[in-house]
C-alpha cells in the first residue's frame, strides 16, 4: 500500500538526517580538536625553546643525513635517546648512531627558532661514517 511506502520513506529520511547530524557533530569535534592542537603547538613554540647541546656544521650531499633533511646550522635538541640532560660528549651520539644502524632515529633540531623533527636512519653509504654530517658540541 502507498501509506506503507510513505512511512518507510519517512523512516529512511529520518535515518539519513540522523546520520548526517552525527557526521556534522563529529566534524565539529574534530575541528575543535585540530584547533586545540594548533593552539597547543603555537603555545609550545612560544615557550622557551628546548636547549640544544650540539650543532650540525657540515652535511655531505647524498648522505643519510642530507637525505633525512638535516641542514647545516641545525641545533640538535634530541638525538635518539641523547638530550641536553644526558649529553656528555660526541661519543654519546656516536654510540646511538652505531646502535641504530638501519633503524630510524628520531632527531629534534632547532632551525631558525622552530622545533623541527627529522627521521634519520644511520646506514652505510658511499662516504665515511653512517650519517655523513659533522656535529660539534655547543659550548653553553
From TrEMBL:
Self-association and partners: Interacts with PSMC3. Part of a transient complex (modulator) containing PSMD9, PSMC6 and PSMC3 formed during the assembly of the 26S proteasome.
SUPFAM superfamilies: PDZ domain-like
Organism the protein comes from: Eurystomus gularis
Gene Ontology CC entries for this record: cytoplasm; nucleus
GO annotation terms (biological process): proteasome regulatory particle assembly
Listed name of the protein: 26S proteasome non-ATPase regulatory subunit 9
Segments forming domain PDZ: 21-113
Membrane-crossing segments per the record: none
Keyword flag Aminoacyl-tRNA synthetase: no
Family statement drawn from the similarity comment of this UniProt entry: Belongs to the proteasome subunit p27 family.
Gene this protein is translated from: Psmd9
Function: Acts as a chaperone during the assembly of the 26S proteasome, specifically of the base subcomplex of the PA700/19S regulatory complex (RC). During the base subcomplex assembly is part of an intermediate PSMD9:PSMC6:PSMC3 module, also known as modulator trimer complex; PSMD9 is released during the further base assembly process.
PANTHER family: 26S PROTEASOME NON-ATPASE REGULATORY SUBUNIT 9 (PTHR12651:SF1)
Gene3D superfamilies registered for this protein in UniProt: 2.30.42.10
Residue stretches in coiled coil: 2-46
The entry's keywords: Chaperone, Coiled coil
